[in-house]
Amino acid sequence: MSWDWNAVVDFLPHFRDGLLVTLQILALGSVVSFVLGLVWALLVRTPTRWVSWPVGVVTEFIRNTPLLVQLFFLFYVLPEWGLTFSALTTGVFAIGLHYSTYTMQVYRAGIEAVPVGQWEAATALNLPVGRTWAVVILPQAVRRVVPALGNYVISMLKDTPILMVITVPEMLGEARLYAQETFRFTEPLTVIGVAFILISYLASLLLRTLERRLVR
Amino acid sequence: MTPGLWELVLRGVWVTLQLLFLGALVATVVSFAVGVARTHRRWIVRFVAGLYTEVFRGTSALIMIFWVYFVLPLAFGWQLVPLWAGVLALGLTYGAYGAEIVRGALNSVDPAQREGGIALSFTPWQRMRLILLPQAVPEMIPPFANLVVELLKGTALVSVIGMGDLAFSGSLVRLALQESVEIYTYLLVIYFVIAFLLTRAMRALERRLKAGLGRAPAKAAVAPVRVPEGAGAGGGA
Questions:
Q1: What CATH code would you report for A5-214?
Q2: Angle between helices A5-44 and A49-63 (to 10 degrees)
Q3: Among A5, B39, B169, B214, which residue's CB has the most CB atoms within a 10 Å radius?
Q4: Least CA distance to B168: which residue of chain A?
């Protein structure tokens, strides 16, 4: 094997493009998963079985099936139903939806960890249900679960390369494209591999700092 | 769906099951080796094991698969058949997650148990084999159950390097039928059924192991949380 630093330098512009797309997917996907996850967590808690049961089954199904197949499903099936989105939009939605079934569990644990006295106090003050959730329960629940949510952002980062299969030009997609043009696999794959390790390590350090500040 | 296409799908299921089984085997060996090494007396052993977990948990399983399949042959001059490339990449990656489970379970054993072993002048290996592991293993089963479902989902990734697993057979059928709803729905259902059976089997295993210790399995539903990145003291993780 020969390691060619020129190939590394050549690959850097592609790497930068890929990195930007990866970070974009990560940011948008996180937002989708945080919002949808909260929606699922609240829906599962509704008193009627007609809502909570189907939501439970669907999220369980999504959580236990591969993201890769879900991506293909959305990418090929939605156009057949007349809904055409760009590969990036489909990818962001798919990864956000997949992870929302994990964040939902996190929110649920956070909501359950709010002391019963808080609920009782809200009832005693005659707060309507909406206000109880918005100003009493959720602020306390979300604060507790930020580190756990952060873990899923890091997990999501490591799943972004899967979006390559629906032609999203993120880091692995760029590396493969470069490899196909120049027949050099070693350098681009190693560069992005190291990049992933560095980014996720830095992110976990950041998260630990955040955790110390929030959970006191 | 013609019978011929169903046969293709079934062959894909078989490959996926092989990958799952062999990958789980490699991952288990790696988890225990690395997890036990992280509780070793010498700092250098702990450091190397810790470095392994950080590196393999830090990178993406798909990149690992690409690396094993495309770079290793150039580096060492031998080409792995896709099945073994997939098994190796999945086993090493998920083994790193498993190592954290093993380490956590070993650390959660009551310190008095270890001290008892020292007082009875057991060797470190005897302590591990006769005292710590028998108590730690049942605690590992619920997180391992989540990990094995993650591994099942990970096996779909090998279809990207052209291996004929279940996800790959799906894309062949899609090309043959020029229609995607049906085949991808079947695919998702098949994966879900396998995951469901795996979860059930792991729960039965847990009940059996805990019965041997005279403990009841935890009542609360285990949150299927991905192995925390070391920073997860939050509610779910």
A1: 1.10.3720.10
A2: 160
A3: B169
A4: A69
State whether B180 and A200 contact (CB < 8 Å). Answer: no
pLDDT at A1: 56
CA nearest A160 in B: which residue?
B60
B232 lies in a domain?
A: no
- Residue B190 located in a structural domain: no
Would you give the DSSP letter of residue A160? Answer: G
Q: Which residues of chain A neighbour B153 with C-beta distances below 8 Å?
A: 64-68
Nearest to B167 among A69, A80, A198 (CB): A69
CA distance B170 to A154: 29
Over residues B181-191, the mean pLDDT reads 92
Contact A53/B at CB under 8 A: no
pLDDT at B67 over 60: yes
Token representation of residue A70: 């879900």
DSSP single-letter state for residue A134? I
Mean per-residue pLDDT, B84-104: 93
Contacts with A, B 163-192, CB within 8 Å: 167, 170-171, 174, 179-181, 184-185, 187-188, 191-192
CATH number of B48's domain: 1.10.3720.10
Q: Please, are residues B122 and B193 in contact by the beta-carbon 8 Å criterion?
A: no
Q: At A52, which amino acid appears?
A: S
With beta carbons less than 8 A apart as the criterion, state whether A173 and B31 touch: no
Q: Is A84 part of the contact surface with chain B (CB cutoff 8 Å)? A: no
Q: Dig out the tokens for A57 from the structure.
A: 């089954």
Contact check, Cβ <8 Å, A64/B195: yes
Interchain pair B188, A73: CB under 8 A: yes
User: Among B31-40, B48-57, B76-85, which stretch is predicted with the lowest mean pLDDT?
Assistant: B76-85
Please determine, for residue B158, whether its predicted confidence score (pLDDT) is greater than 80.
Answer: yes
Residue B39 lies in a domain: yes
Distance CA A7, CA A182 (A): 9
| Dist. CA A90–CA A93, nearest whole Å | 5
Task: Name the helix (H) or strand (E) containing B198.
Answer: helix B181-213
Residues of chain A with pLDDT under 50: none
Whether B133 is covered by a domain: the verdict is: yes
Q: What is the pTM of this model?
A: 0.87
Distances in Å between the alpha carbon of A140 and those of A106, A119, A137, B157? Answer: 13, 12, 6, 38
How many structural domains are present in chain B?
Answer: 1
Residue range of the domain that includes B156? 17-164
